[in-house]
Design brief:
The complex is a heterodimer of chains A (about 200) and B (about 450). With about 200 residues, chain A is of the alpha/beta class. Helices cover about 25% and strands about 20% of the residues of chain A. Chain A has a domain of about 90 residues: NADH:ubiquinone oxidoreductase Nqo5 subunit (Beta Polymerase, domain 2). Chain A has a five-stranded mixed sheet with strand order 1-2-5-4-3. Chain A starts with 11 loop residues before the first helix and ends in a 39-residue tail after the last strand. By secondary structure, chain B is mainly alpha-helical. A three-stranded antiparallel sheet of chain B has the order 1-2-3. A three-stranded antiparallel sheet of chain B has the order 6-7-8. Chain B has a two-stranded antiparallel sheet with strand order 4-5. The chains are: A alpha/beta (about 200), B mainly alpha (about 450). At the A-B interface, helix 1, strand 3 and helix 4 of A face helix 10, helix 15, strand 6, strand 7 and strand 8 of B.
Chain lengths: ~200, ~450
């Protein structure tokens, strides 16, 4: 590292350039090195796999979401889904995604863990803003009951066939979905004594 | 009412209708009279009472629904449990959470990576260092930097000390929930010493903000070995006390053995990790299975038991304190010399001494803390073993100095779902023991 470098590192353009170079090179690999990702790609058309910092990630169509989870559970020994969350890419819809994947506003992200094989895999599905819903995995993995309610509550993504899809963290009568990028932080209007009242 | 009819002209059918009508009126009158504060709720009112989601119709008329919490002292904060009771037996239950939701994941999107650890450390306030560690590991993976050996050993030492203090907190509150107030005092006594040690090392008793992306905030203070070993001895003596007080205590066993059982299969299905999973006879510990830091270089055992009840979860946490002390002792023994943070000037500010003599160093320091460092675009999920189970951190970076999305997979959030299967068929008093044995930290559940 040269000493004269600015503390905030490279200019932003440089980072982006690097990423553009690196991303396709990684994802152009026809068969992924990870065996689970390879198995999913073999079974399901349209799935794309990348290695994200050494972790296998599979991008899926939303319609395959539940089938792939079932495949992982029943045929690949992924007995646990450790985490499910979502990301709102409202301000970054033009982000880098693997070729063949159409970037949408939301991404639903699930991390699976196989205790028997001691490996992990991450599934990512694109969910459009106009019709924000995806199949629920709670019937397959009971532990996703709370997290799917959380995503519904904070992102407004509906999980079809969820047994109890209600708000979990916010009050029942809350309007809006706080973790969406267009949901501004709440402000309490302050009126000062000397201020003229709003007419 | 229909027009008055001559009694003699009533057919049998009409008479029955009339009786039904009168019955309905009488029922409505009674319902109105008992409507306020009574447990017999009409259908319309039931909606009002049960916020926090839909509640299916009770299975029989004999049951009643009551709430425990959110202010109940044994719910460890602000957990509310809706319970359907048949007499004193729990038919089913539902955890209602969100009372402590402060939008920390939203806040995290507004904070730079250098500030991020101050935010995540407040999630699981009983083991803040685990949160800082998982956040730092995720950031470092995105930055693709390797932390020096000494920093990794310091991190391991701190996280294990934190595991001790967290399990001591459990021992104390678990004892009190079950009526053993002396246990509360015992647990607090040793926890206080552990927190004092953490204060000596990090400067704060909790919410340390000490493990940061790039290493730790400062080197270990002079004489830390003696302090650490002293605390180890104190805690070991404490464990003996708890062991003698509770483990063979018939009253304690009566309350806990065979209560709140859960199976491995249920745990795996519900995504439950940590001591609850290990209490079912499944020795899964990320420190062994997917090692991070320097855990492969220390010698320790994964504690597990077979029965999956409240008593086993108590014993696991007790023995895990002893295992953590083993790790801490090895940290003291094997602590290598070297840097306590990475010497990458993009991430690490210049040393304090340099700021006094070099204008560039001052500017550098200022820029790093006002603008932060940029993290290349990408996403990653990192998981470690916190005292409560797998804590994970999912970060999406967009190339700026702030995370685009930061998500913490709190073990308590998932573990809380084990309550419903555990309390089924148990008594109300058992519910207190069961919730206590899950050891949820509501700051992490609600975030």
């Amino acid at each position: 590292m040269p000493d004269d470098q600015t503390p905030d590192g490279r200019p932003r353009e440089a980072i982006h350039e690097n990423d553009q170079d690196a991303e396709p090179a990684e994802s152009d690999v026809p068969t992924p090195s990870d065996e689970v990702a390879a198995a999913i790609l073999e079974r399901f058309d349209g799935a794309r796999s990348v290695s994200s910092h050494g972790q296998p990630v599979v991008y899926l169509g939303r319609s395959q979401w539940r089938d792939v989870a079932e495949f992982l559970r029943d045929e690949q020994q992924f007995t646990t889904c450790v985490d499910l969350t979502a990301v709102d890419f409202l301000t970054a819809v033009d982000r880098a995604v693997p070729p063949g994947v159409e970037a949408e506003r939301f991404e639903v992200v699930a991390n699976f863990l196989s205790h028997a094989r001691n490996r992990r895999v991450r599934l990512i599905a694109q969910v459009p803003a106009t019709d924000a819903e995806i199949a629920s995995l709670t019937p397959l993995y009971g532990g996703l009951n709370f997290p799917e309610r959380e995503v519904f509550d904070l992102f407004g993504i509906k999980f079809v066939d969820h047994p109890d899809l209600t708000r979990i963290l916010m009050p029942d009568d809350w309007e809006g979905h706080p973790l969406r990028k267009d949901d501004a932080p709440a402000r309490v209007p302050v009126t000062f004594k000397e201020d003229p009242r709003p007419s | 009412m229909s027009e008055p009819v001559d009694e003699e002209e009533l057919t049998e059918e009409q008479a029955e209708e009339l009786i039904d009508e009168l019955d309905a009126l009488e029922t409505a009158r009674l319902e109105r009279q008992t409507g306020e504060g009574a447990q017999e709720l009409t259908r319309g009112q039931r909606e009002l009472v049960l916020t926090g989601g839909h509640w299916p119709e009770p299975e029989s008329d004999e049951t009643m629904i009551i709430n425990m919490g959110p202010q109940h002292p044994s719910t460890h904060g602000v957990l509310r449990i809706m319970m359907e009771l048949d007499g004193e037996t729990l038919v089913r239950s539902k955890a209602v959470i969100g009372y402590l939701h402060t939008g920390m994941e939203k806040t995290a999107e507004e904070l730079m990576y250098v500030q991020g650890s101050t935010n995540v450390t407040r999630m699981d306030y009983a083991s803040p260092l685990s949160n800082e560690l998982v956040f730092s590991l995720a950031t470092e993976r995105l930055l693709d930097i390797e932390v020096p050996d000494r920093a990794q050993w310091i991190r391991m030492l701190l996280v294990e000390l934190n595991r001790i203090s967290s399990h001591l907190l459990f021992q104390a509150t678990n004892g009190m929930d079950l009526g053993a107030v002396s246990m509360m005092l015992f647990g607090w006594r040793e926890r206080e010493e552990t927190l004092r040690l953490l204060e000596q090392i990090t400067g704060l008793r909790m919410n340390h903000n000490f493990i940061r992306p790039g290493g730790v905030a400062a080197d270990l203070p002079d004489g830390w070995q003696e302090s650490v070993l002293h605390v180890c001895e104190l805690v070991e003596a404490g464990i003996d006390d708890y062991d003698r007080l509770l483990t063979e205590n018939p009253i304690f066993q009566e309350r806990t053995v065979g209560v709140g059982t859960i199976t491995t299969q249920q745990c795996l299905d519900l995504g439950i990790t940590g001591p609850i999973l290990r209490s079912t006879g499944f020795p899964w510990d990320l420190r062994k299975e997917q090692p991070y830091l320097k855990y492969p270089e220390v010698d320790f055992d994964v504690v597990y038991t077979e029965n999956g009840d409240v008593y086993d979860r108590y014993r696991i946490r007790l023995f895990e304190i002893a295992e953590s002390i083993r790790i801490v002792r090895q940290c003291v023994e094997k602590m290598p010399p070297g840097d306590y943070r990475v010497q990458d000037r993009k991430v690490t500010p210049p040393p304090r001494a340099r700021i006094n003599e070099s204008m560039e160093a001052l500017i550098h320091h200022f820029k790093l803390f006002t603008e932060g460092f940029r993290v290349p675009a990408g996403e990653t999920y990192v998981a470690i073993e916190s005292p409560r189970g797998e804590i994970g951190c999912y970060i999406v970076a967009d190339g700026t100095a702030k995370p685009y999305r930061l998500h913490i997979r709190g073990p308590s959030f998932y573990n809380l779902q084990s309550m419903a299967p555990m309390v089924e068929g148990a008594m109300v008093a058992d519910a207190v023991a069961i919730v206590s044995s899950i050891d949820p930290i509501l700051g992490e559940v609600d975030r």
